Amino acid sequence: MGHRIIQQNRGRGGPTYRAPSHKYKADLKHACPNTETVKGEIVDIEHDPARHAPIARVALEGGKKVYALVTEGMGVGDEISWGPEAGVQNGNTLPLRGIPVGAYICNIEAKPNDGGKFVRSSGVQAMVVGKTTGKVAVQMPSGKQKWFHELCMATIGIVAGGGRSEKPFAKAGNKHYKMKSQAQKWPRSSGVKMNVIDHPFGGGGHQHPGRPKTVSRGTSPGRKVGHIAARRTGKWKK
Q1: Once rounded to an integer, what is the mean pLDDT over residues 96-120?
Q2: Confidence category of residue 34, pLDDT binned at 50, 70, 90
Q3: Strands 55-60, 227-228: parallel, antiparallel or unpaired by DSSP?
Q4: Quick count: other Cβ atoms within 10 Å of Cβ 213?
Q5: Are 195 and 203 a contacting pair, CB within 8 Å?
Q6: Residue 40 predicted with pLDDT over 90
Q7: Residues 185, 193: contact at Cβ < 8 Å?
Q8: pLDDT, position 15
Q9: For residue range 176-201, what is the model confidence (pLDDT) as tens digits?
């Protein structure tokens, strides 16, 4: 009997495709809701296996310690704040209505008090481009404009760790550990390189699919590879 194809194994949910969430350090939510203001001091800059950007361990005024996303220019000993009374300076987090147009921001909430959902990857930033009654327009890293509620909180600055993707892995072991932390199977082989019992495109005297690559939406799981429910096929004509 042949092996399951990758899509079937991933859907089954085995340990190979399960993210190692037991190694992650924190959810990186904002330290307070948008109605309070708290201050803290950065105690240490750490690495979190859950993300490529560095994180900061912050000691709050009451003695509680939380983790926060690091922006470029932050360091140990710096003081940062969360809340509507926080100043507009690097590393501080405040509601969008209090951030001036043209400021770079990151770690933006999708809705008020959800802790931050958007623009959290290393080296990225968004920009406040406009305001209206109850809403704030933000230009996302993709270049598209998105509207947020004015009470959604965001952090001032650019996420640290820029240029990470430009550094070569140099060794296969480095790539192995990166892919393992992201719950991705690596290395991967294309279907045409496999045996005929292991993949619908496998087998044959030379590497070729041997069958149409476009399949319907209702195809059985063992055959659902290639262009699934493609709207069109063939070369674009001018």
Answers
A1: 95
A2: confident
A3: unpaired
A4: 15
A5: yes
A6: yes
A7: no
A8: 83
A9: 988 888 888 889 899 999 999 999 99
- Residue at token pair 């201050």: 39
End-to-end Cα spacing for the chain: 47
Cβ atoms of residues 201 and 225 within 8 Å: yes
CB-based contact 70:78 (threshold 8 Å):
no
Instruction: Categorize the per-residue pLDDT at 1 as very low, low, confident or very high, splitting at 50, 70 and 90.
Output: low
Q: Which two tokens mark 201?
A: 């495109």
User: In the structure encoding, which two tokens stand for residue 135, read together?
Assistant: 């809403």
Q: Hey, what are 50's tokens?
A: 């859950």
pTM higher than the cut 0.85: no
Residue closest to 18 by CA, chosen among 29, 9, 27: 9
Burial 112-149 (b: 16+ CB within 10 A, else e): beeebebbbbbbbbbbbeeeeeeebbbeeeeeeeeebb
Tokens 């990470």 belong to 164
Domains of the chain and CATH, by start: 21-74+84-165 (2.30.30.30)
